[in-house]
């Protein structure tokens, strides 16, 4: 709807510096990791229409723009000494739960590619878990399970949810403004986690490293309808509806590699003679590729802005997001399997997420004929329900900026600081007292310089 205010054309571009830091606490040890980079977050073109469309009552503008809606950049680093468990215990539980045997896990291994079809089969081929000698299957075991385990983990995220917008906004008597936008989104996100363990005082297995990589790509479409109404020369109110974004094909690829480090593992050669294995090569997980459809939540927002003449303004915006409305499905599955897939994951979404209210308060002060000072504070409500965990993931953002504007061009400097909390669980076990999660404090600093030219 804001395009209705334009009476001339404009092209704008911006460049930004991003620094994301995560401070973690895992098993009473603190760690920190930072990721910094430069990006091109925004580009926009507005074709203004000073001419009137109908009896001097309507005029409008057409806009096209590019922006990065979400940046995946938050890094994680954790470390600590675990006296209760190892990642291998997770693989053991998986092998026990599916009734695996040594032979069945061998059947999952492909010698030509050195890949196995499940994480537990990977661990078995790496000589890190073993079947019970009496049953040749469950309960699986590992060497020296009572040793303390020195654990180190990192997670690196990269990519973005980028969006191209095509919009049109019109003004009626310079009092009522309405606009419609179509949004073409593309997500490209990669998450790489690296987990390392060292068994303190071990005689057989020194430790291991396990790397996982998850890549998500997809394209989506959504629309926005917005309206602004001038109640008087000072007060304006607004309303906007963002439809859910539909990704018709989300592509997911997951793979992993396990590298064992051994001192000496007792075994037998092909003739049944005892031997000691002192070197074990890496074993990879067979890549898992999956395609599904994703529908994001709808958003409903409203706001008001009060103008103090030409001296400045004060604005308030409220946004409601229906997170439990997210849905997934998969056309690559059979009808019955898709129903089970939807029931499982959509049910988890409804259980673990809640609707949230986002609040944004901003102000702008005109310092002179050319300079403007801006500031704002915003909160994004916690989207996770109390049934998921007790962490309050509310995001707080403080922003400030300075703008210089003439009749021909403008330049804006802006800074955004965000802070929130989260958690990271490297692996989970049936007994919650046997594993730990890391508490995370997330901070994000973004510096931007942008400008535009009128024509």
Topology:
Blueprint: E1 10-26, E2 29-47, E3 58-71, E4 76-82, H1 87-97, H2 102-107, E5 109-110, E6 115-116, H3 119-125, E7 149-172, E8 176-199, E9 205-230, E10 235-242, E11 246-262, E12 265-268, E13 274-277, E14 283-285, E15 288-295, E16 299-307, E17 312-321, E18 327-329, H4 335-352, E19 356-366, E20 371-380, E21 395-405, E22 409-424, E23 438-454
Helix pairs in contact: 1-3
The tally of helices reads 4
Q: How does the major sheet shape up? A: 14 strands, antiparallel, barrel
Walk across the major sheet and give the strand order: 1-2-3-7-8-9-10-16-17-19-20-21-22-23
What proportion of the residues form beta strands (DSSP E)?
Answer: over 45%
Return Rg in Å. Answer: 28 Å
Pairing-aware structural class of the strands and helices? Answer: mainly beta
Low-confidence stretches: none
Name the helicity range: under 10%
Which short descriptors sum up this protein?
mainly beta; 455 residues; two-stranded antiparallel ribbon
Characterization of this structure:
The protein is built from 4 helices and 23 strands. With 455 residues, the chain is mostly beta strands. It has a domain at 296-388. Strands 1-2-3-7-8-9-10-16-17-19-20-21-22-23 form a 14-stranded antiparallel β-barrel. Strand 16 (299-307) and strand 17 (312-321) form a beta hairpin. The two termini are 21 Å apart.
